[in-house]
Write a structure and sequence with these properties.
Layout lengths: L6 E5 L4 H6 L1 H10 L4 E6 L4 H5 L6 E4 L8 H13 L4 E4 L4 H5 L11 E4 L6 E2 L10 H11 L11 H6 L9 E5 L13 H13 L3 E4 L6 H10 L4 E2 L6 H10 L2 E5 L2 H8 L4 E5 L5 H4 L6 E5 L8 H5 L7
Parallel strand pairs: 1-2, 1-4, 2-3, 4-5, 5-6, 7-8, 7-10, 8-9, 10-11, 11-12
Helix pairs in contact: 8-9, 10-11
């Protein structure tokens, strides 16, 4: 298929880190189909954020109906068919997104880049699951004819971010992560000690997180009262603006750190044995990975040693 295609669908549900890592792919698809109408199918959380990118003509929300929710499933089928898509780029490549190929009528299915059985442009690498998300999806697009991959550009997100009027220099600390995966978190006491070290160096620690991390953030603030708590106060684009202005960032393997790294902030990301950094590490100009089987064994000195000079 060439650039003459008029209707393109891109599927990317999430999570946040994966959406950040897909930015360059979104740009590549738009550059490859400059005259096409491109629709993104995503989840409600990411629609307001990605609308600001200017890369999509329309963004549809997928509420991901269950198999037994027949009415909602039929509504999704009608919606997909109404797009008259010439090609679909499935950047989610989950069992769910792959199943959507079957929602199009047999004999009139769009060209499909992904891993769905019977799709026209399958990603054939049997080792795709071992690749980092960026390389895996870049290879997938290359096999569908898109070989020019630009650097990720989040200038639109930085522009949309609010100014929190933080004292300069400041450092971002991202101590959260999935509540059901506590093994992916460096202890709050360690973050509190790191915050104290930053203060001693003239750097203001700024805490990023949500309601799920409230107890962790409260503990850090108790240890270091000088820390500024922005938990539950930042939008996705705010993270880009904060990252662009920060002297450094330290955090667990979690979505916000992907955004902060992507805008060029020097980042130290902490991994336990629960995750594989070779497949899911943040990408940016200056990303350092520290991994321990048990993050409780990661020393403060080891983290401090990775920080830029003067911090």
């Amino acid at each position: 298929m060439t650039n003459r295609a008029q209707n393109i669908l891109v599927i990317k549900h999430g999570a946040f880190g994966d959406v950040v890592l897909a930015q360059a792919l979104f740009q590549a698809i738009r550059a490859h189909h400059p005259a096409a109408r491109i629709t993104l199918l995503t989840t409600a959380l990411f629609k307001p954020f990605l609308e600001k990118s200017g890369l999509f003509d329309d963004i549809w929300v997928d509420d991901k109906p269950k198999l037994w929710q027949v009415r909602r499933l039929l509504a999704l089928k009608r919606k997909l068919r109404s797009g008259n898509f010439d090609r679909v780029y499935d950047l989610q490549t989950s069992s769910r997104s792959s199943s959507y190929l079957k929602l199009f009528p047999a004999g009139r299915r769009p060209e499909w880049s992904g891993v769905a059985p019977g799709c026209s442009h399958p990603h054939r690498n049997p080792n795709r699951g071992r690749l980092h998300t960026v390389e895996r999806q870049s290879e997938q697009l290359a096999q569908a004819g898109i070989t020019d991959m630009p650097p990720a550009d989040f200038s639109w997100a930085i522009k949309a971010a609010r100014d929190f009027a933080l004292p300069v220099p400041y450092a971002l600390l991202v101590p959260g992560g999935s509540a059901h995966r506590p093994e992916k978190r460096w202890p709050a006491a360690s973050y509190g000690a790191l915050a104290g070290h930053l203060v001693s160096q003239g750097v203001t620690p700024v805490l990023i997180g949500g309601k799920a991390e409230a107890d962790v953030l409260a503990e850090i603030c108790g240890i270091c009262p000088e820390a500024i708590d922005l938990s539950s106060k930042t939008s996705l684009e705010d993270l880009a603006g904060l990252g662009a202005g920060a002297a450094l960032a330290v955090g667990n393997d979690t979505g916000p750190l992907h955004m902060i790294a992507a805008v060029g902030c020097p980042v130290t990301v902490l991994f336990s044995r629960a995750s594989d950094p070779s497949r899911a590490r943040p990408r940016g100009q200056a990303v350092t990975v520290l991994q321990r089987d048990d993050l409780a064994s990661l020393s403060l000195d080891a983290v401090i040693a990775t920080l830029p000079s003067g911090a």
